[in-house]
Amino acid sequence: MPSVGVVGATGAVGGVLLGILRERGFEDVRLFASARSAGRELDGRPVEEATPEALAGAGVDVFFFAIGAGASRELVPHAVRGSSLVLDKSSAWRMEPNVPLVVPEVNPERALDHEGIIAVANCSTIPLTCVLKPLHDAAGVARVRVATYQSVSGAGLQRMEELRAQAADENDLLMDWDFDGEEFDEETKIREETRKIMELPELPVSATCVRVPVLVGHSEAVWIETQEPLSAERARELLHAAPGVRVDDFPTPRRAAGIDDVLVGRIRPDRAAGDHALSLFLVGDNLRKGAALNAVQIAELLLERQALAA
Fold it and tell me: Using 50, 70 and 90 to split pLDDT, how confident is the model at 180?
C-alpha cells in the first residue's frame, strides 16, 4: 500500500476518510489539519499542521485533501511540488481543463491522465452520475432535471452539532452556498460537473438545491429524458446491474447512511414528459460515497492499473 496523507483529518469528511482507509488496509497514514487542530491525536496518530513546507516535504505517495476551496488552492500546489499525487475533494480544481474529475463507476479511465491532481466531484453530482451512466449507455440521456435535499453534514461538523442541539422543526436552515441572482453555486456545480464527468458538454441540466434537517445523506428527485425509448422496467434492470448502485423501492437517508452504494428507487415513467422520460429518487451518504469513499476508490483504481501494467 502507498503512504498517504490526509489534509483536513479533523473535519467531517476527514473522519470518514480515516475509517475507510483503515477498513481497506492503508496503514502508513499521516494526518494534517489547520494550526488550530495541530498537536491533537486522532486515530492513534498525531495531527500535524498543514503548512506549505510540511506538505512539500512530507514524502507521501498520495494526499487526500478534505478542506475548503480557498485553502486547497493555496496548499495543493505545494503537495504536488513534493511529488505527491493529490486527490482533492473541494471545488477548487474540478473545472480546470487539465484536472480530471473522476467518479470510478463512470469515467475511471480519466484518472490515468493526470498532472498530479485529481478532483473529486460534488457530493450530489457523484450519486447522480452513478445513476445516469448506465441509462445513458443504454438509451442516451438527453435532458436532466434534479431537485436535491441535502443534509447538514455537507456544511461541516458545526452544522451537524447545531442540528443535534435543536429540534428539527426549530431549524431555519440557511442555504450555505453563494447566490449569483439566478441560482446557487451548488446548482451550477451539479450542471457543469455532470457535463464534464459524462463527457456531454451540451447536456441540458437544471438543478434546484436545498438544505434539509437531516444529519447525513443527500436525497435527489431526478427527471430524465432519453434519446431512445427506455421503460421503467428496463431502467430498473440496468441500475440493478450497475456498479456502486443498489435498487431500493423506497430509498431514505437512514438506509443510505454508512453504506458504499447509492440507493435508487421510485423508478417510473414521467407522464408529463412523453414516452422517453423517467422519474426516480436516489439517496447517497454524502460523507462516504459522496466524498471520502470516492477518493479512496480513485487511489485503489490507480494502484490496480499500476499492478496490471507491471
Answer: confident
Asked if 68 contacts 13 with a C-beta cutoff of 8 angstroms, the reply is no
> What integer pLDDT is reported at residue 307 of this predicted model?
44
Torsion angle of the four alpha carbons 117, 108, 281, 123, in this order, in degrees rounded to the nearest 10: -10
In this prediction the pTM is: 0.92
pLDDT tens figures, 228-254: 999 999 999 999 999 999 999 999 999
* CB contact set of 4 (below 8 Å; sequence gap of 6+): 21, 26, 28, 29, 30, 60, 61, 62, 63, 64, 299
Q: E strands within the chain?
A: 4-7, 29-33, 41-42, 45-49, 62-65, 85-88, 101-102, 117-120, 141-150, 205-211, 218-226, 245-247, 262-269, 277-284
Under DSSP, is residue 287 helix (H, G, I), strand (E, B) or coil?
coil
Residue ranges of domains in the chain, CATH in brackets:
4-120+291-309 (3.40.50.720), 125-286 (3.30.360.10)
In the set 78, 114, 218, 276, the catalytic residue is 218
Q: Is 136 a catalytic residue?
A: no
Cα distance between residue 63 and residue 71, in whole Å: 14
- Summarised one tens digit per residue, pLDDT across range 110-145 is 999 999 999 999 999 999 999 999 999 999 999 999
Catalytic residue among 123, 130, 136, 209: 123
The Cα–Cα gap between 46 and 31 comes to: 7
